């Protein structure tokens, strides 16, 4: 146990030094939710294993608040692992789905809480003789548990009438209230939550490739930002020269025996892609030119029809002995 304690303390100190180094290099960009959880986990792990009383030093037992802190630290450490998995390109998309559903639930949480409080207060008023509904906080907890199917209908509504703790007072109100609870909470609200979750997951799946690429870019940028500046300068390349016509001995040997090198294949694939793009662009231009010619033909036909119509109108007006100037004067 002593070895484990000092191992935890040593690892915690090393990780805190690493976080301090990241804070010095990244400054204000370091302040994120993920880094806050990491600092809390490392510091709380050290506090948990340190002996703060003679009893803890002799027996190895922790104080009550240390056990509570240990529970929070264990939960936070696994959540930190979940946040780290989110940065992986293959499994991170599922973590993104989870957080999107969590955001949707947080927006819906106010309505959810109002329904729970409403039913819990009503159950407390009618069933306060039972231990699980004896107070408002316990009634709220019991109502929330009842949403997942733990109704205990027989124990609540068909208990022993001779016992005060199991007797049902006001059955005319309790039965309809329980029926409303089953319809509203377990059917409507739960199905609404499932529908919102499915909709969020569908939207994330439609943009899965973009999400995956964005997470990869974020991971690369974070790793690069955590590196010292002199290491980034050593690994940075301001220019990259490609000489496609210059062949090395290996390339000449491969071409001698009829094997294409990888660079030549890449150049050929790039040229092929450019040719395909140019051909598609030409086809698009040809189709647009054809549409323009068709539009010009339609305009010419409309102009000819207009000329013929005007000639017919002139002939009709001549037979009626009406002049254009008179029509214009009357119109004015």
TrEMBL record:
Which keywords does the record carry?
Answer: ANK repeat, Ion channel, Ion transport, Membrane, Repeat, Transmembrane, Transmembrane helix, Transport
Has UniProt tagged this entry with the keyword Ion transport? yes
Question: Gene3D superfamilies, alphabetically?
Answer: 1.10.287.70
Q: Which GO terms label this protein's molecular function in UniProt?
A: monoatomic ion channel activity
- A Pfam entry, by short name: Ion_trans
Where does it live in the cell? Membrane
Membrane-spanning residues: 36-53, 65-85, 105-127, 173-198
On whether Oxidoreductase is a keyword of this UniProt record, the answer is: no
Would you say which domain of life the source belongs to? Eukaryota
Q: How does it sit in the membrane?
A: Multi-pass membrane protein
Q: Can you cite an annotated GO cellular component?
A: transmembrane transporter complex
Please list the residue ranges annotated as the Ion transport domain: 12-208
* Protein name as it appears in the record: Transporter, cation channel family protein
Upper classification of the source organism reads: Eukaryota, Metazoa, Ecdysozoa, Nematoda, Chromadorea
